[in-house]
Please model this.
Amino acid sequence: MAVPELISPRSTRVAAARRLARRNFRGKDRLFLAEGPQAVREAAAHRAADGPTLVELFATPEAAERYAEIVAAAETAGARVHLADESVIADISTTVTPQGLVGVCRFLDTPFETVVRARPRLVAVLAHVRDPGNAGTVLRCADAAGADAVVLTDASVDLYNPKSVRASVGSHFHLPVAVGVPVEEAVRGLKDAGVRVLAADGAGGHDLDDELDAGTMGGPTAWIFGNEAWGLPEETRALADAVVRVPIHGKAESLNLATAAAVCLYASARAQRAADVR
Model:
């Protein structure tokens, strides 16, 4: 087994990686952390138009041996690979129980203009979403449902928050994500691209089941999802073409953000597939 290269957490390379746990340094360096085998695997496979996404990988000798194919993919992608002992990984990691792999990745957000120019058919818009775990989970749901893009408004959480990256389980690297877009600009741009904009709200005047039965969900659609605690403000709901509620058939008071997003996105994806075969 190889001897670790980086013995001290005081190494300049370790210090540079460790500071990426803080938003201001992420923004300054335009770098973020991806932890664990799944995220690092996806980062190594991802390549932007201007170069590879994964630029550096820290791995314990045990993890490097266990995930040898990921380390090889990182090296092939041009990333600098450092063997480090567990104390170094623990110092860089933001998790309680690190899995032995921490990657340093370049920012990969997409300009909003590029998103709408591609004429997307299914988009998730996160407006006023503050919880990074929820943001990452919605991104994962959008990826699973086959969405074309995700948009985070300027009032939402940082896309590269470590909790968001972990919660997406690699989906950060799968679909375009635009960040920092004012909600009015997002809605206007999507509508101009021929996308119907729906606001998801438990008090919405339209029922999701009724919309599906009426056949109105088969075209290009964007869903706006709001804050975990207080939903969407009235001024945001007013921007949408319709405010749609997910019906509650049982006794539950409501659905959480990620669950509601999954239901809405999958409903649209199914309706669009059905429309395509007609």
